């Protein structure tokens, strides 16, 4: 299986920049693009051949209904979005995502056949105190009881996101093995690493055993740089 590349464009780009970046990309089954939520439908219309993910999904709106401001999993499915990033650390830290809202989001994804990309990862403090496995185990609790056909888990240590710091291969291997052993859904499990991935380090990261792909933020918003990364995984 080709290694998966998930591009999280966060809130980095204008609509014009988002479309310009889309024009650079050709159809690749292993590349999943998560543009800003506002531009998802626009991107799907312009580039129906690309795979898209949302950056979040509503925890409360499962159906169509009176949920002002929400984007439900049903709506994502309606425009052909197949994936949703759930529980990104930027949302856990700043937007009150927690294990209970994440569990609700996962269940909404499941009901609409959206494959979740669940982010887990420890802070630098958790790592220093040696409690990082406990933290990750707690983040995995919301996943345990759900039966997904396929589930993607992104290990994204918070200390590596946007910092240029990459964990050692041994540190990444330990967490990947830990996630696999903590869940009894191993056969449908896709494990990716995220945090400061770029064209220079992506090959080494993908060579680490137990890694099925990468989740890339900033480096995926530069067209030439992103193309280089995609070419490396061909
Ligand atoms: P980064 O972000 O690649 O810019 O570190 C990764 C992420 O937050 O998903």
Report what the structure shows:
This protein has 234 residues and is α/β, with parallel strands linked by helices. It contains ten helices and eight strands. It has an eight-stranded parallel barrel with strand order 1-2-3-4-5-6-7-8, surrounded by four helices. The longest helix is centred in the last third of the chain and has 14 residues, at 169-182. It is globular, with a radius of gyration of 17 Å. It binds 2-phosphoglycolic acid (PGA). The site of 2-phosphoglycolic acid has 13 residues, from strand 8.
| Strand arrangement in the largest pleated sheet | 1-2-3-4-5-6-7-8
Distinct ligand kinds: 2-phosphoglycolic acid
Order of helices and strands: EHEHEHEHHEHHEHEHEH
Average per-residue pLDDT, rounded, comes to: 92
Characterize the main sheet. 8 strands, parallel, barrel
According to DSSP, the number of beta strands is 8
Q: What is the structural class?
A: alpha/beta
Poorly predicted parts: none
Rg, rounded, reads 17 Å
Distance between the termini: 11 Å
Number of helices: 10
Helical percent range? 25-40%
Q: Strand share of the residues?
A: 15-25%
Shape: globular
């Amino acid at each position: 299986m080709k290694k998966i590349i998930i591009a999280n464009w966060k809130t980095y780009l204008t609509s014009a920049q988002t479309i310009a970046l889309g024009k650079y990309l050709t159809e690749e089954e292993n590349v999943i693009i998560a543009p800003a939520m506002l531009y998802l439908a626009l991107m799907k219309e312009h580039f129906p051949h690309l795979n898209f993910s949302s950056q979040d999904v509503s925890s409360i709106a499962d159906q169509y209904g009176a949920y002002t401001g929400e984007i439900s999993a049903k709506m994502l499915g309606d425009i052909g979005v197949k994936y949703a990033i759930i529980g990104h650390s930027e949302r856990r830290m700043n937007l009150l995502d927690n294990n209970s809202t994440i569990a609700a989001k996962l269940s909404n994804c499941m009901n609409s056949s959206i494959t979740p990309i669940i982010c887990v990862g420890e802070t630098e403090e958790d790592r220093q105190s040696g409690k990082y496995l406990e933290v990750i185990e707690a983040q995995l609790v919301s996943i345990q009881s759900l039966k997904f056909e396929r589930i993607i888990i992104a290990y994204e240590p918070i200390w590596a996101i946007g910092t240029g710091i990459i964990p050692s291969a041994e540190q990444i291997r330990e967490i990947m093995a830990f996630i696999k052993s903590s869940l009894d859904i191993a056969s449908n499990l896709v494990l990716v690493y995220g945090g400061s991935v770029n064209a220079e380090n992506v090959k080494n990261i993908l060579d680490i055993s137990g890694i099925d792909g990468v989740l890339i933020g900033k480096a995926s918003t530069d067209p030439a740089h992103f193309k280089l990364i995609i070419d490396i995984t061909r």
